Give the backbone structure.
Amino acid sequence: MFDSRTRTVVIVGAQWGDEGKGKLVDVLAERADWVVRYQGGANAGHTVHIGEKSFVLHQIPSGIMHPGVRCAIGNGVVLDPDTLFTEIDELIADGIDVQGRLYVSDRAHLVLPYHKMVDSLSSASREIGTTGRGIGPAYEDKIARRGVRVLDLRHTDRLRALVERGVKHANALLASFGVAERADVDSTMTLLQRLAPRILPITEDVGLVIHRAIKQGANVLLEGAQGSLLDIDHGTYPFVTSSSTTSGGAAIGVGIAPTAIHAALGIVKAYTTRVGNGPLPTELEEPLGAEMRRLGNEFGATTGRPRRCGWFDAVVVRYAARVNGLTGLAVTKLDVLDTFEKIALCTGYKVGDDLYTEFPGDLAALDGAQPQYEWMDGWQQDTSHARSLDELPAAARKYLERIEELVETPISHVSVGTRRDQIISVGREASPVSSGAN
Ligand code: IMP
């Protein structure tokens, strides 16, 4: 993945999230100097399995598992300071040293208790099926220019004025929802004053730090959260998260130039899942959906909610390849399909007499859409021991080749299990998207 021309790589989910980004970041971080999160917040749940243990990281970049790698949380993230330190303390308890290896952007906005109250009590959040982590309300405050940033923790008086403004706005919303709960300035200030002595020492101008690292030739992984179809602009709006999950968001969310990013790796499951509401054209009916959920253990890492499951949708992933400029694809959870006799790939949607082969912006176009499937033979063999393409059954190779053709992107990695070593590095990638950062 990293070479002399490709040193800054962005990793994005190319479906609706939960594609296995945590595992791929963990695998690729072996050769990285830095891993940086650029959007989202504690709504993410990146799972890394090491030996018998599994870790679910919500805000800390998945590179933290490698002792030599430094990690940063960029300005584009909305940071929940309370759960950040719970996560840090859990890692320390598990013997993972984060001292001197984790930095937080001074410009990142904070998710405060009142954001979580608004998120969990609003009917709009329920309709979307949000994670209830306060993500939407925190980004709303950011865009409305009433947010509280990490750097505000340095100035107690200014901080109090900002919190007062945020609480006032949140309470007006809570009143409009007709609920009795109210946010409170003093308890929010007490929380922030307790956490400030821990946050401020790890606060940095992350954009500058990463810019300098790139200039010095460091390998930098930018770790996206959620998936491209949950992007605020390019996803299935309004059933999306509130950030730019696609590769373009990485430059903004870290504070580096778009031209500093050399490659974009899209992570896709060998099938499709979605958690929360909104269109999922290839969603399987029961009992097949439940069977795939059971085989893939498809339950949310953050909320525990069952994920909706469907066949691989090549229309969705080709769209994600275009919007992100994907230079490679990593296909995960291939082993979950090991027992299926027949496997389907969606190549278009039929609506009346119209055939859609490009993902539409207007979700009304998906109402009653009939996915057009290409059926392929399953391999009905265990793939979890394969460590090279040659070790995969011929039918599995054929399935992957068809994905490459339909998505028009080369597959660079195939994951065949949860463990770090259950990975096939194919080594095929398109050429870097730009000529370099310096
Ligand atoms: P929010 O990000 O909590 O506002 O939720 C908005 C939508 O994004 C909901 O459908 C969530 O289920 C979905 N979502 C948010 N984070 C993730 C994730 O990490 N994986 C999968 N779906 C997510």
Observations:
- Residues 8-104+205-435 form a domain with the Adenylosuccinate Synthetase; Chain A, domain 1 fold (CATH 3.40.440.10).
- The pocket of inosinic acid is lined by residues 17-18, 43-45, 128-131, 133, 135-136, 225-226, 230, 239, 241-242, 275-276 (CB under 6 Å).
